[in-house]
Design a protein that fits this description.
The protein is globular, with a radius of gyration of 16 Å. It has a 15-stranded mixed sheet with strand order 8-7-6-5-4-3-2-1-15-14-13-12-11-10-9, with helices on one face. The chain is mainly β. The relative contact order is 0.18. The model has no long low-confidence stretch (mean pLDDT 94). This is Glycolipid-binding domain-containing protein. It comes from Streptomyces endophytica.
């Protein structure tokens, strides 16, 4: 069960945004990721609880940020309920999308797991619903993911495979690179892996 810590920063000006303390695990029916998010002073500001089935589809999502809450799942596309900080109003949403995304590294693992682009086979497209802090307002976007390289790195146990993905925002044309190994993000815009207490899990 990988357990560790990511540092989060603004991808444009590198302003520190805090840290995400996580653990995740694969199982016979899929993958689960749980994390607690703190601001630069160490105060708790949010959490992520995401469970995928074996095909990479989100069967349970629960996000918290600044007292806002979102619960969602893959149902008729994706469906969610967003609750305001007072807890007095809840709004339901649905979109013909493949999955969710957001600021957490969990969503990079989830999208790669869902799309599984093959090396040299070109990009795979997905429609995603994004929830980003601080208010977790939903936004639908289209991305394409292409696997550029898979590089083995020797370890004391089995080699670790580092995958390099090119991710395109199909609305803005913005491109960025994501590096993953198993169910851990090595680096991505605004995300750096700072510590890892156990090796990444591998997906079968």
């Amino acid at each position: 069960m990988p357990r560790g810590r990511y540092s989060l920063h603004d991808p444009h000006d590198h302003t520190p945004l805090g840290e995400e303390h996580f653990h995740c695990a694969t199982g016979p029916s899929g993958w689960r990721y749980v994390s607690q998010i703190t601001d630069p002073s160490g105060d708790h500001i949010g959490s992520v609880d995401l469970t995928l089935d074996d095909l990479g589809r989100p069967i349970r999502l629960e996000l918290h940020a600044s007292a806002w809450q979102v619960r969602g799942a893959a149902l008729d596309g994706v469906t969610w309920v967003r609750t305001d900080p007072t807890g007095t109003h809840a709004t339901e949403g649905n979109a013909r999308a493949h999955a969710f995304t957001g600021a957490s590294p969990a969503f990079l693992i989830a999208t790669a797991r869902l799309l599984r682009p093959a090396l040299g086979a070109g990009a795979v497209r997905a429609r995603l619903v994004a929830f980003t802090p601080p208010v977790l307002a939903p936004r639908t976007l289209d991305q394409s993911w292409a696997l550029l390289n898979s590089t083995p790195h020797a370890t004391d146990n089995a080699p670790l495979i580092a995958d390099e993905y090119q991710v395109n925002d199909l609305e803005t044309g913005e491109q960025h690179t994501v590096h993953l190994t198993g169910d851990v993000v090595l680096s991505a815009p605004g995300i750096e892996l700072e510590s890892l207490e156990s090796p990444p899990s591998t997906f079968t």
